[in-house]
Amino acid sequence: MANLSENKRCPMTKFQHCPPSLIQRYYAWKQNSLPRQAATLGRLARDGQVPDFMVISCCDSRILPTDIFEAGAGDMFVHRNIANFVPTYHAPSGDGSGDAHGTSAALEYGVCALKVAHLLVLGHAKCGGVQGCHDMCAAGQSGPEFELPLVGAWLENMRPVYNQMAADGKNIDIDEMSRRSVVQSLHNLLSFPFIADAVAGGTLSLHGAWNDFGSGTLLAYNPETDGFDPV
Ligand SMILES: [Zn+2]
């Protein structure tokens, strides 16, 4: 085992060795968890991944989609972005500019290459991204004017959710805005031609859920009531 007593700083490059605390965690995983997963990981390495589920989750470190669904290696194709939002489809521009984004690429790979059967948009309580979109819109700012301009530019995609709720004239509850954002993402998913085709063909189903990580509660989107029910 390497000496983990201190960070090794390399004066020759702009980059540094992995933090010892991280390496220590790896050693613990290798000792405690790897033996239980070795057969599965070996099979996945040999045969490739065939996950049934794709999940769009927030980057938030408190949200662990594979944990709350007890998913193991190979079970879930997970894409994470700020506030687990799916923007509307934009055709690739070809010059690297425009509206192409990593979420689109992940969706295309999950649906067209991996052919997942279920696609879940997972929102969560106390989402800083949703709060940020709310604050940006309430302050009348555009995305680039937001204190984090790259985050602001991304959150512009969610502005229609704020506008719709603000039009009702009530105080906007951030958790409710998060849930409506999940529903908007479900509608936006259908703007992707390959997703609309897969749904129409019966090979893909779309789902929404919302996790209150503080209490462990999971709410599932009910398409009949357009609301969320405890599961
Ligand atoms: Zn979040």
Short description:
This protein has helices at 20-32, 34-47, 65-68, 102-113, 128-138, 149-155, 159-166, 174-189, 193-200, and strands at residues 53-58, 76-81, 118-124, 205-212, 217-222, 227-230. 40% of the residues lie in helices and 16% in strands. It is built from nine helices and six strands.
Walk me through what this model shows:
This protein has nine helices and six strands; from the N terminus they run H-H-E-H-E-H-E-H-H-H-H-H-E-E-E. With 231 residues, the chain is an alpha/beta fold. It folds into two domains: 19-48, no CATH class; 50-230, 3-Layer(aba) Sandwich (Beta-carbonic Anhydrase, Chain A). A six-stranded mixed β-sheet has the order 2-1-3-4-5-6, covered by helices on one side. The longest helix has 16 residues, at 174-189. The mean pLDDT is 93. The chain binds zinc ion. Zinc ion is lined by residues 58, 60, 83, 124, 127-129.
Question: In terms of topology, how is this protein built?
Answer:
Blueprint: H1 20-32, H2 34-47, E1 53-58, H3 65-68, E2 76-81, H4 102-113, E3 118-124, H5 128-138, H6 149-155, H7 159-166, H8 174-189, H9 193-200, E4 205-212, E5 217-222, E6 227-230
The structure holds zinc ion.
Zinc ion binds at residues 58, 60, 83, 124, 127-129.
Tally of helical segments: 9
Helix content: 40-55%
**What are the distinct ligands in this entry?**
zinc ion
- With strands numbered from the N-terminus, the spatial order across the biggest sheet is 2-1-3-4-5-6
Number of spatially distinct domains? 2
General form? globular
Give the total of beta strands. 6
Distance between the termini: 45 Å
Task: Spell out the CATH superfamily of the largest domain.
Answer: Carbonic anhydrase
The CATH architecture term of the largest domain is 3-Layer(aba) Sandwich
